[in-house]
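In this section we walk through a basic example: taking a raw amino acid sequence and producing a predicted 3D structure, encoded as discrete structure tokens. The instruction is simple. Fold the sequence below.
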Amino acid sequence: MSLGPADVAHILLALGVLLVAAHGCGHVFARLRQPRVIGELTGGVLLGPTVLSTLSPGAQSYLFPESGPTQPVLGACHQLGLLLLMFCSGAEMRSLFQRGEERTVGLVTVTGVMLPFLAALALIRVVDHESLTGPANDTAALTLVFALALAVTSIPVISRIMLDLGILHTSFARIVLGVAVVEDTIVYIVLSVALGLAATQGEDFGLPVLLGLAPGSPGSIALHVVATLVLFGLMLRFGSTGFRWISRLRHNLLQQSNPVAYYLVFMIAASLLAAGLGITPLFGAFLAGIIVSAESGENAEASRQSIKSFSFAFFVPIYFAIVGLRLDLVHHFRPLFFLWFLLFASLVKAASVYAGARLAGESGHASANFAIALNARGGPGIVLASVAFGAGIINQEFYAALVMLAVVTSMLAGSWLDRIVRRGAPLRPRAAQEPPVLSTGAVPHS
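The resulting token sequence is shown next.
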């Protein structure tokens, strides 16, 4: 389909407005010592049915019309933003692991994932889950999403909060990020399975189609689960070796010409491989990020940083802004449901983390700080909501609740840690040789 000058102008206007709103609100939130990602989402909320459509329906429908080429282009940017976000998240994984504190990381991870999952399985039996189910109408997929919403922790948000507070190199930060790395890996594996369970609509691509498996059938579900786990294991075991071997091939002209383009093509290839196996492409992008994170050297680091820089300048803010754009807090938000769900999710996650920390021998004060910090759901919580909503697993009401859960828990975690640091109190009192924490909450100049 060819685009006329008016179509191009309309697309550029919509992208420009979204980008300005996302970065503008992100900057304001950062100045207020709140996660930038929440500001980017807020920029989309201001332009969507929650605010702009209420104040000026004509302006909102003009900027983001339901018909025409604008929506497909925004949808493509949304998907690219998600893939790049997953790639960048994976690229941060291995660099976050630190030796030491293994007992605390292990026990907090086990309890922080297992107990929320058990609580979700119990709660889903007593709540009216039909009021939360999307068009896919898959109770098993809904249960997994429900459990993930309780268990997820945000690496980007909590690491940015601790960076701003000047505590990123403390043992407390190492433990929090170590737990978050493992938890988010589990989350994306289970989310990939949930998407496979919900694949009830006709598919025309991938291994399930070649094998003649009906979408949503037991065989299709079994294939999806096995393919997800096998791909995860093989990519972690052989992915780095294969990537390095391809990188050093004499005829790898793309690597020689532009390493950044080579990394992007690798991400696309991994996403296509996942899609070909019937797995969500975002899981392939996530694994590609983990694999390239193992590459060392100035060129590798510069390539990863270049991808991260332009992704977080354009595609990722656009992604979060579009998530906010789809959020209708006027017609599809149930305050009473959200309040009890927020309370339940926060208490379950905090109690599970606290129990794991205490079992590991941490003090009550340190365990409480771990419990609050790991309650921040941030970006992964928003990704969970948007992907599950897009797959038809959840409806608009539950989508709004999940997004708001990510927003509120991230802001609460940031405020709690900021208060502790400003008081000059240690976050993990028994840790030896803690670097000094700035009581002003400022980031030390390098």
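Looking at the output, two observations stand out. Residues 78-314+341-423 form a domain with the Na+/H+ antiporter like fold fold (CATH 1.20.1530). Residues 432-446 have pLDDT under 50 and may be disordered. In the next section we compare this with other chains.
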